[in-house]
Amino acid sequence: MARSRAVASRLGSYARKTRGGIVAGVDGCLREGVAACRKLSPRAAKKIEAFAAWVRASEARRLGTAALAGALVLAVASGLLHEYWRAAFSSQPPLADGTRHAVREKANQLATAIEARLVANGRLQGDAWTAAQILVALKENNAGYTGRASAKSIGRHFRSIAGPECACWRKLPAGNFPSHVGVTSWTLWGFACYGIPARRGEIEFLLSAQSPEGGWPLFAGAEPKHFASSYATAAAILALHALSVPEKDPARRERIATAVNRGGEWLKSRAVAGRARWADYPDSPEERREYLGLSGFVLFALHRTGTPGLAALDRDWIGQLPDETPALHADQASGRKVWVGKRAYPDDTLYRALPWTIVATMNAYPNASIFGKVRAARWLERALGPGAQVHALIGTEPDAALLAEALFALRSET
Fold first, then answer.
1. CA atoms of 295 and 334, how far apart (whole Å)
2. pLDDT digit string (tens) for 343-395?
């Protein structure tokens, strides 16, 4: 502790003498690390680099007071005291009032638009996947929402388009589409949001589709060792977690909790080391591809279901945030062929980068270091502030699922 005070004192003295020359460089050093420090003079870089390393090590050892004091000294040197001070004591991103206002306004606009597209003359429209995403988004952080459709009509609509041979849902109800874990999970998550009791067979469908290792395939019946899907597993644990709340049968509640825990641990163990990124099919012997939108969805699912031990993943996520916000329509699909018996089906799940990066960053923020919090808050300001591309979305956007996921992201801030 004495050593930390001495270091802080020396740097404070140095900062007062050289403040004008390091204002721009020190902030880059804090955000980008050693490479940015080298843009400064050798003397400034050496001192700042050593001090930043000490602060990070102090945080890792949980020497909170000393680390905070050091961080504030460094912030004074860069003229950013207020920003780093807010970061040190905030558990949520300290976004500007104008940003929060713009987010609320856009969320209200999107909610009105997608509800009008979902319900016509009191009846639900559209396929199960998109309709379920809209229903979940309308309810997120809006517990008092009732909507135009009653719970009874919601349940009736979805069960009218369920798979005829299973208590599950497909991308489309036609028989040439396979039973879909992702669509079923979103549907049952929607049921839980609106207090619609899930039938025993619907819960059993999800529970029985889980692999011995803990993951879920996207299509029921696919060989789980090679075709366990990060997206399907995240969606399944979200649905089961939500369904566990109203479940009255203690034995089934325990089975659900066990399945969620196993799924969460499976996802944690498949994260790419040091990156908080997930591949679409992490156990596949074929090429594994990482996706930003998929990774954000997975990290959100781990947080929402209460999976323990996420601090390191959260710090990795913040550290790997892209410098630029993803394009609004930068959707990616794996296109992987998934074999169910002797027939292959394409995985055309769209991983939408911008909405789920926003959501995951909100979730990861509390576990970030002071430097990480500042970086995350700045990134979120760029992604959510007035004039950001998410505000260009309008209700006539042809992709209603994109509107739903964007609404979910905006509601995650409020």
1. 13
2. 999 999 999 999 999 999 999 999 999 889 999 999 999 999 999 999 999 98
- Quickly count: other Cβ atoms within 10 Å of residue 13's Cβ: 11
Please state, as a whole number, how many other Cβ atoms lie within 10 Å of the Cβ of residue 240: 27
Chain segment 266-307, per-residue pLDDT in tens: 999 999 999 999 999 999 888 789 999 999 999 999 999 999
Tell me how far apart the alpha carbons of residues 411 and 395 are, in angstroms, rounded to a whole number: 16
Using CA atoms, how far apart are residues 13 and 15, in angstroms rounded to an integer?
5
Is the dihedral angle over the CA atoms 214, 215, 219, 222 positive or is it negative? negative
Return contacts of 191-194, CB within 8 angstroms, 24+ apart.
191/154, 191/155, 191/158, 191/243, 192/239, 192/242, 192/243, 192/245, 192/246, 193/135, 193/136, 193/139, 193/242, 194/135, 194/139, 194/151, 194/154
**What is d(CA 47, CA 16) in angstroms, rounded to the nearest whole number?**
14
Contact 167, 204 (CB under 8 A): yes
Q: Phi and psi of 343, rounded to 5°?
A: -120, 140
Q: Rounded to an integer, what distance in angstroms lies between the CA atom of residue 128 and that of residue 115?
A: 15
Query: Cα(213)–Cα(303) distance, rounded to whole angstroms?
Result: 20
CA angle 397, 406, 202 (to 5 degrees): 100
Residue type, 223: E
